[in-house]
Design goal:
With 330 residues, the protein is an alpha/beta fold. It contains 13 helices and eight strands. The chain is globular and about 55 Å long.
Length: 330
């Protein structure tokens, strides 16, 4: 079985696939007023997801390029304190998620995935939803380097947003899962910013193409001319000690086949990495992330699987904190 479907590629856009979701939202009794412009399916998802008291700070630069920016989403209680200019009443730091969106490395942006930032914030996570430079103007490794830079920025500045840098998880979907895994699995990317993979608490990849021959697909434009899978696929480039990983596949994915996660899991295990896998039953490539939107969570359990995993990984005291306590006791 090939890692990608021969009839559907990563260039099948999430907005087009989410058109069905929009219809489901309307059919379930949610009605919206006509707009002056045509709205995309992601507009619809975001329209009915944002709210519930969470907060957001938009367009924060993590680099010099126009696409090197991110949005920070805040849980409801933290957002309330910040709105009241009463951040001094915040008595704890929150775990943090950095989310990397998909789009064949050619499309999509952080604003399209506001519903993901809101979803994680609802669950109690300070959440950075990042932009990164796109193909064909920027090919591998530019978008992976951007992802590493955004992760490093989030780690360095976590405390400024009432987040705990020692409880930081990186989550990616589709091409964004590739970026997230590649940026952490190969230590050279984070090393540029004075970090190592184990500075990240855990990594979650949802429907990621970690191990396929991009030369056979339109996504070849996102990779250098003459490059081979062996030179760029993250399952071939695992260096340095690693954090735990969760690799989820969509049960009805016709875009990215499960073999990608199988190959990535095998490679991680061979390097002694703690890795879990899971299947999102009934999910397509699009709904594996679309179901994070509040009106669409009934579609599948992708959000529940990710949140359950993050709860286990981020709730315990960090290894660094434990080591520090042990050293101070000796």
């Amino acid at each position: 079985m090939k890692p990608l479907s021969p009839t559907s590629t990563l260039s099948d856009s999430l907005p087009r696939r989410l058109a069905l979701m929009s219809a489901l939202v309307v059919a379930s009794g949610v009605v919206f007023a006509p707009q002056a412009r045509a709205i995309s399916a992601l507009d619809v998802v975001n329209k009915f997801s944002l709210g519930n008291g969470v907060g957001v700070t938009k367009d924060i630069a993590y680099g010099d390029d126009a696409l090197q920016n991110l949005d920070i989403y805040y849980p409801k209680d933290l957002a309330k304190a910040l709105r009241q200019s009463d951040s001094g009443t915040v008595s704890r730091d929150y775990p943090m998620v950095v989310f990397v969106h998909g789009g064949s490395w050619q499309s999509g942006n952080k604003d399209d995935y506001a519903f993901v930032g809101e979803s994680f914030a609802q669950a109690g996570y300070v959440t950075a939803v990042i932009n990164y430079r796109k193909a064909p103007e920027h090919v591998y490794p530019d978008y992976v380097q951007d992802t590493a830079q955004a992760i490093a920025w989030s780690h360095e500045h976590a405390a400024n947003y009432h987040a705990d840098a020692d409880r930081l998880a990186v989550v990616g979907h589709s091409a964004g899962a590739f970026n997230a895994v590649a940026a952490i699995a190969d230590k050279k990317f984070l090393a540029l910013y004075g970090m190592q993979p184990t500075d990240i608490r855990t990594v979650v990849g949802i429907a990621g193409p970690y191990s396929y021959d991009f030369r056979e697909y339109p996504t070849a434009v996102a990779f250098p001319n003459g490059a081979t899978p062996g030179e760029v696929m993250p399952d071939r480039h695992i260096t340095g000690a690693q954090p735990p990983y969760l690799l989820l596949t969509a049960g009805n994915d016709k875009t990215v086949y499960p073999q990608n996660a199988i190959n990535m899991q095998k490679a991680l295990l061979e390097h002694g990495v703690d890795v879990e896998t899971g299947v999102i039953e009934g999910a397509s490539h699009a709904t594996s992330i679309g179901a994070f939107a509040s009106p669409l969570r009934w579609l599948n359990d992708s959000r529940a699987q990710v949140l359950n995993y993050l709860q286990r990984q981020l709730s315990a005291a960090s290894p660094k904190s434990t080591e520090s306590l042990e050293n101070s006791a000796n």
